[in-house]
Write a structure and sequence with these properties.
Blueprint lengths: L26 E4 L2 E4 L7 H8 L5 H7 L8 E5 L5 H9 L4 E6 L4 H11 L5 E5 L1 E3 L3 E8 L18 E11 H8 L3 E4 L19 E5 L2 H18 L3 E2 L8 E5 L3
Parallel strand pairs: 3-4, 3-9, 4-5, 6-8, 9-10
Antiparallel strand pairs: 1-2, 7-8, 10-12, 11-12
């Protein structure tokens, strides 16, 4: 006759997708960064991705092991301040300089930095281009699809406002900031931007390439400019359209 066995059943509770999430009113947390839950900036898709730790996940996973204390970062396209906060707070970069043209995102980004006690980020309103001047920025209903193109392919979000923004010459910016790390996500603006840029001071670049807009020629131009600067494609940290280039790897 078999003896009854004492069986202990362990019940595992389902963990929140974001293990840093709290019940702090009006705040969404993602990867240790706090974001004001401003519905005019954070649409339902962005809010869901933040809560699930999926917002710019590939970019974050590319920079977190690579950006080091003491680095000076030039970020082109700051968005809601996610990447600059990760690099400044989590990676402990010495300083991050962000260029963002959207007049709604700039104050929000600064609010994010202040909320998280981040003081080593400088936000500049405008874009970085091949030549100094002015340009038209097209703000869309989906704020993160806003760009310098009026009718880019594959984007269906309607334009809600246009803004004249400053264009800062890339070599002037490089000379002033003296970055050793470049992070770039500018919705197709990367095409031709680096052709005559003096990038020799960089040890690494993380660039989200948009081949659906810049095509084969534009994509090839980014790779050629990085290789000319002594940066080699680094497959270990690259994933899909997020491409990492490094020296001495």
């Amino acid at each position: 006759m078999a003896l009854a066995q004492d069986r202990t059943i362990t019940v595992r509770t389902k963990r929140s997708p974001d293990n840093t999430e709290t019940n702090e009113p009006g705040i969404i947390r993602c990867r240790g960064i706090r974001f004001p839950d401003n519905e005019s900036i954070l649409n339902p898709v962005i809010r869901r991705k933040l809560r699930r730790r999926n917002y710019e996940r590939i970019e974050a996973e590319a920079v977190r092991p690579q950006v080091k204390p003491g680095d000076t970062v030039l970020e082109l396209g700051g968005g809601i301040g996610f990447m600059s906060s990760v690099m400044a707070k989590s990676c402990k970069a010495d300083h991050v300089h962000v260029y963002e043209p959207n007049p709604d995102l700039v104050p929000y980004m600064k609010e994010v930095h202040a909320l998280n006690g981040i003081e080593n980020v400088t936000v500049h309103q405008g874009i970085v281009g091949a030549k100094k001047g002015k340009a038209t920025f097209y703000q869309r209903e989906n704020v993160l699809t806003s760009s310098m193109e009026e009718n880019p392919r594959t984007i269906i979000s309607p334009v809600t406002a246009t803004h004249e923004v400053d264009v800062f010459n890339i070599n002037t910016v490089l000379g002033q900031v003296k970055p050793n790390v470049l992070v770039c996500d500018i919705e197709g603006g990367e095409a031709g931007l680096f052709d005559k840029a003096k990038l020799s001071g960089l040890r690494m670049a993380v660039i989200e390439i948009h081949p659906q807009w810049i095509g084969e020629a534009g994509t090839r131009g980014v790779f050629e400019a990085m290789h000319k600067a002594g940066l080699t494609y680094f497959p270990k940290a690259s994933h899909g359209k997020v491409v990492v280039f490094k020296k001495d790897w």
